[in-house]
Design brief:
By secondary structure, the protein is mostly helical. The chain contains 11 helices and no strands. The model has no long low-confidence stretch (mean pLDDT 96).
């Protein structure tokens, strides 16, 4: 496979016809934007059958930052669509072997961490009340997302007490109506 055939195939499969393939091959910024559009179209599809193949193709991208960014966007979009943690775990388990294609360990770790965060978020959304130790394992980003979206007063109180950053603790306090003494 060549970069040109990968880009052309992704765009064609997503039905994106207004991107100049040669321009995308020549310019990594155009290509990165094209990957984002492919991810958006693919995530909006009802079928998850081609997700792993699409991720595998994106991960052949020579610019690993662009491919990592596209895969993270894909993970985020699917996590927001699934019915719960079991469905997301099944989907991500099928995808994670492809992540090993990335040469940069930090990028592999980032994507795996993002999947872990979403599994945590979805389990909380599904009714699981995390322990302080479980909350401590969540990234600052995930703690902030929980503080901004949680409806559970006990969860907001836990975040107000235990979140990593002052900003997240303050968001949780304000949303829970907790006053400092």
């Amino acid at each position: 496979m060549t970069l040109r055939s990968d880009v052309a195939g992704l765009l064609a499969e997503a039905g994106i016809l207004d991107v100049d393939v040669d321009g995308a091959v020549a310019d990594e910024h155009v290509r990165s934007a094209a990957y984002q559009r492919v991810v958006s179209v693919t995530a909006d599809s009802r079928s998850r059958d081609r997700d792993r193949a699409i991720v595998a193709t994106i991960l052949r991208e020579p610019n690993e930052q662009a491919s990592k960014t596209a895969v993270v966007a894909f993970v985020d979009r699917i996590a927001m669509k699934v019915s719960g943690p079991a469905e997301f775990r099944q989907w991500s388990d099928g995808l994670l072997p492809e992540i090993d294609r990335l040469k940069t360990e930090g990028f592999r770790a980032f994507i795996r961490r993002r999947v872990h965060d979403w599994l945590f978020y979805l389990s909380v959304k599904d009714g699981h009340m995390p322990t302080p130790a479980e909350l401590a394992e969540a990234t600052d980003w995930m703690q902030r997302l929980l503080a901004e979206n949680a409806q559970s007063p006990p969860l907001l109180a836990l975040l107000a007490e235990s979140a990593h950053t002052r900003k997240t603790r303050n968001v949780a306090r304000n949303r829970a109506g907790i006053r400092l003494r």
